[in-house]
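We were asked to recover a plausible sequence for a given structure. The inputs and outputs are reproduced exactly as logged, with field labels preserved.

PROBLEM: sequence recovery
POSITIONS: 486
GIVEN STRUCTURE:
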């Protein structure tokens, strides 16, 4: 029975370990970044934002294409009693039962260089008098017209220069947002990795301290260890147990944060792999700065904002000075008792109108509006110059930080290996009674600190790596600009 119980226990232990391995999922940093950029909730928000910008761009382009429209009233019926003036000047109230219908087709095209519009229209009207059983038609088979502002602010021309820059900004913003997802995923990845390292350290420390305490009890019983040292070891066991409980809680919290961000819905436990530093050489600040100015949205944004400020000056001058507009049409028109009468021998129809407006006395209003727009343009120029300086400084600072962190990894890795070896030596030396418990605790603290410092330096390096990519939109491993296919 005892043998059977032992076999059953071993089988249960092996099964539980196998299930734990099945339920665990290894995850590398590159896989986490890819998941963040493809399936996270924030990634879907980024995709939606790009789609929105695309359709706004399509809407803008459609404004400069021919527009075909159909408009009409079918029907406009009225039955009432209205006053009718008689030949002798008196009023007679007559019953009226009428219906009016109209329909028109219009084709128009804007002229962006001049801000005008040309159009072709065909109109048809029908009038029915039910009391007198009469039907009349009136129509314009074809009308060609032109609407042209003179000396006015040309919004079409300015918009045509500004909107392509805005759309280019949105495409660069999409790439930046994708890279920012990588930065956030890296931060959460190393939060969990450090928590798992702390959990592993706490587990090993509890096991080691418990073993040392058991050995110390035997030495104490033999009179080879003082009670003070025994109590100190027991306190170390209790502290290690508390540290493990806290490490388990921190690990669970970091695990949930990473899985929620990556939209991992399964219940698998994640085992994070310790990433190695990138292999590319030291990044040159001049290259990073050139790529940042070429790839980031800031350069395009600066151009757009300058154009917008310039357009506001043009608008202030155009809207508050001498303005004129030209309206001219030429076409065919006719009337008749039937629909076909309008198209038999229609008459010519012409119309031309030139209107103008000019302020004569505005108490300095025009000058004030124009001056305010000009000063705003200067302010935008000064602001952009400062932002350009800040942006370049941020890129150079990030390059220097990245290079420093890359060089620091080798130092922290060597310190981690030395501290781990020193602790093993100190532990074995303590077991034979050659060093004190204080020296052993110092070696243990240095080992744990060195391990955490190495993982932290790796996390800082990879965060700086992806931040540098986001700042420059340049892949320094592939030596090419970053782009994401739709």
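RECOVERED SEQUENCE:
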């Amino acid at each position: 029975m005892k043998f059977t119980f032992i076999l059953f226990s071993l089988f249960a232990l092996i099964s539980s370990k196998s299930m734990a391995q099945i339920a665990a999922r290894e995850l590398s940093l590159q896989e986490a970044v890819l998941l963040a950029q493809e399936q996270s909730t924030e990634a879907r928000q980024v995709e939606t934002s790009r789609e929105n910008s695309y359709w706004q761009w399509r809407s803008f382009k459609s404004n400069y294409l021919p527009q075909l429209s159909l408009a009409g009233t079918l029907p406009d019926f009225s039955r009432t009693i209205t006053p009718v003036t008689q030949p002798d000047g008196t009023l007679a109230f007559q019953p009226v039962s009428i219906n009016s219908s109209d329909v028109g087709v219009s084709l128009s095209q804007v002229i962006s260089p001049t801000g005008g519009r040309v159009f072709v229209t065909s109109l048809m009207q029908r009038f029915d008098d039910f009391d007198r059983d009469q039907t009349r038609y009136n129509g314009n088979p074809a009308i060609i017209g032109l609407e042209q502002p003179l000396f006015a602010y040309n919004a079409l021309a300015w918009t045509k220069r500004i909107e392509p820059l805005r759309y280019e900004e949105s495409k660069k913003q999409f790439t930046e947002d994708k890279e920012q997802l990588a930065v956030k995923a890296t931060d959460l990845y190393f939060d969990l990795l450090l928590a798992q390292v702390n959990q592993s350290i706490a587990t090993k420390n509890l096991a080691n301290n418990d073993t040392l305490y058991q050995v110390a009890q035997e030495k104490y019983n033999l009179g080879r260890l003082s009670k003070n040292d025994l109590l100190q070891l027991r306190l170390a066991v209790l502290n290690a147990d508390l540290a493990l409980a806290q490490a388990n809680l921190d690990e669970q919290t970091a695990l949930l944060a990473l899985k929620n961000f990556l939209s991992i819905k399964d219940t698998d436990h994640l085992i994070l792999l310790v990433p190695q530093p990138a292999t590319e050489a030291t990044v040159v600040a001049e290259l990073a700065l050139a790529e940042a100015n070429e790839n980031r949205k800031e350069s395009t944004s600066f151009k757009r904002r300058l154009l917008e400020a310039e357009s506001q000056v043009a608008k202030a001058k155009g809207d508050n000075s001498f303005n004129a507009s030209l309206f001219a049409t030429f076409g065919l028109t006719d009337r008749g008792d039937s629909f076909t009468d309008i198209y038999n021998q229609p008459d010519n129809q012409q119309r031309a109108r030139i209107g103008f407006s000019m302020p004569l006395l505005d108490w300095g209003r025009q000058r004030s509006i124009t001056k305010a727009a000009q000063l705003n343009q200067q302010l935008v120029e000064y602001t952009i110059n400062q932002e350009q300086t800040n942006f370049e400084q941020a890129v150079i600072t990030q390059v220097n930080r990245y290079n420093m962190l890359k060089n620091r990894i080798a130092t922290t890795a060597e310190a981690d290996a030395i501290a781990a070896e020193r602790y093993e030596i100190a532990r074995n030396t303590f077991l034979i009674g050659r060093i004190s418990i204080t020296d052993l605790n110092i070696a243990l603290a240095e080992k744990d600190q060195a391990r955490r410092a190495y993982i932290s330096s790796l996390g800082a390096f990879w965060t700086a790596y992806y931040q540098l990519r986001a700042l420059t939109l340049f892949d320094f491993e592939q030596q090419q600009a970053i782009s994401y296919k739709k």
